[in-house]
Amino acid sequence: MPRDENKNLEIRDARKEQILSAAAKVFARRGMVAAKISDIAKEAQLSHGLVYHYFESKEQIFVTLVKKASDKSIEVVNEANQYNGTPIQKLTWMTETILRSIATGEGIYLYLIMIQASTSDAVPAEVRDVLMGDNANSPVFATIPIIIEGQNEGEIVKEDPVKLAVTYYAFIQGLAINKIQWKECPLPEAKLIMNVFQTKQEVTK
């Protein structure tokens, strides 16, 4: 591929990321319904027309962000599965990674986008397809095998694995909401969250 074409692709990708990053902040503050392309353009410090050059509509931007958020969540779970440790150590590593992304602001807006996508009736149908489609693409369902493995090894409490996974992500989403509303909000250590899921025997070790 010619160098100029490579450079053009780099610029194109960087510009799209700039728009997506700005849009995540706008959607988090205003919601998908109230947000406008002009708001996103202003946040990205780009012209209204340039945003439309890369995306057809705010709905397309929102769908792209939901897919990105889902992919990043699954990526963290997959990395946790590859982590060399016991199930509870895998969950602890995953929790530390997620809390770090919330603390630095890197992942906070994507978590809020996922909450909006899950709770708003106004989201595009394509978003619901992403969230309700293949369970393999759901962070909740991707985490369940780690939980079951931990239960089999006596590390994690014997409760419904689905309910435990849902509870886990409720903690994460709640912390993301608190952090964006209150920037100085102190985040708990991963161990504090793990105490909810560990057996008494593991907690007292």
TrEMBL record:
Signal peptide: none annotated. InterPro entries: Homeodomain-like_sf, HTH_TetR, Tet_transcr_reg_TetR-rel_C_sf. Residues 36-55 bind DNA. SUPFAM superfamilies: Homeodomain-like (SSF46689), Tetracyclin repressor-like, C-terminal domain (SSF48498). Residues 13-73 form the HTH tetR-type domain. It comes from the Bacteria. PANTHER family: HTH-TYPE TRANSCRIPTIONAL REGULATOR YJDC, TRANSCRIPTIONAL REGULATORY PROTEIN. This is AcrR family transcriptional regulator. It comes from Metabacillus malikii. The lineage of its organism: Bacteria, Bacillati, Bacillota, Bacilli, Bacillales.
